Amino acid sequence: MAPSRLLLSAAAAALVPAAAVAFSPSAFAVRRSASAASAPSLRMTIVSPFDDAGASSSSSSPTEGGEQLTTATYAPTDPSELDDAPLELTYENVESVLDEMRPFLIQDGGNVAITEIDGPVVRLELQGACGTCPSSTQTMKMGLERGLRERIPEIQEVVQSLPEGPPLEVEQVDVVLDGVRPFLQVAGGTIDCESIRGEGSVQPVITLKMEGSSASLNSVKLEIAQRMQRHFMMSGLRVEWA
């Protein structure tokens, strides 16, 4: 380098501020940290609602070093954290407990309604798809009754209330079968009512005889049985095959 250029470079270096020469990321970080330390920090503690100090829902107070201490009282809001004390047997309480279980019925296309509360006996009507489902008895006993009795111990029994359907007789059975006979005849099949037993009982039985290629298809038999239950509005109705 020429002497004139060397002198010029030395002069330029002398003009550069010392702070700029000393700048480095670590030095910047230290200065920023020192600046942030001057601002007050926020710290929160949770106090049990059973402590005397937790009488107020929240409070703030300064501490040494400029910290701001905020105290909040915990109050449970989730139903699982609240006290599951037994409920009295009232229409409103039964409706409230059913509201907790309705979403599961609605997902399957059904619902439930209170028909009557007779002393410790609650009568419910399963509506929609749940009313004619072959598993409606299990839904009533293992689901709804169990849930109600856990929350309302006064309940002794939950009974399914069914709307009035047509009389259980051969003519009405044929009304249902007439809806499936055209499909069976395409495959060369037939279906007829052989007998009806247990009229007026909790579990009456309809015996059907089906011939043709469809006679061995369980899916066809299940569909016919479900149609019978929907038509007669009897959850305990059974269909047997001769």
Summarize the structure.
The chain has 242 residues and is of the alpha/beta class. The protein contains nine helices and nine strands. The protein is 40% helix and 24% strand.
* Coarse shape: elongated
Biggest sheet strand order reads: 1-3-2
State the major sheet: 3 strands, mixed
Residues in β-strands, percent: 15-25%
Please give the number of β-strands.
9
Structural class: alpha/beta
Show unreliable segments: 1-59, 69-82
The quaternary structure here is: single chain
- Helix fraction bin: 40-55%
Rounded to the nearest angstrom, the distance between the terminal CA atoms is: 115 Å
Total number of helical segments? 9
Sequence of secondary-structure elements = HHHEEEHEEHHEHHEEHE
Radius of gyration: 39 Å
Q: Can you give the mean pLDDT? A: 73
Protein described:
Helix content is 40%, strand content 24%. The strands form 3 sheets. The protein has a 3-stranded mixed beta sheet, with no helix packed on it. Strands 4-5-6 form a 3-stranded mixed beta sheet. Strands 7-8-9 form a 3-stranded mixed beta sheet. A hairpin with a 7-residue loop joins strand 7 and strand 8. The longest helix is centred in the middle third of the chain and has 17 residues.
Question: Can you lay out the helices and strands and say which pair or pack?
Answer:
Blueprint: H1 3-15, H2 18-22, H3 25-37, E1 42-47, E2 58-62, E3 68-73, H4 91-107, E4 110-118, E5 121-128, H5 129-132, H6 136-151, E6 157-160, H7 170-177, H8 181-186, E7 190-197, E8 205-211, H9 218-232, E9 238-241
Parallel strand pairs: 1-3, 5-6, 8-9
Antiparallel strand pairs: 2-3, 4-5, 7-8
Helix pairs in contact: 4-6, 7-9
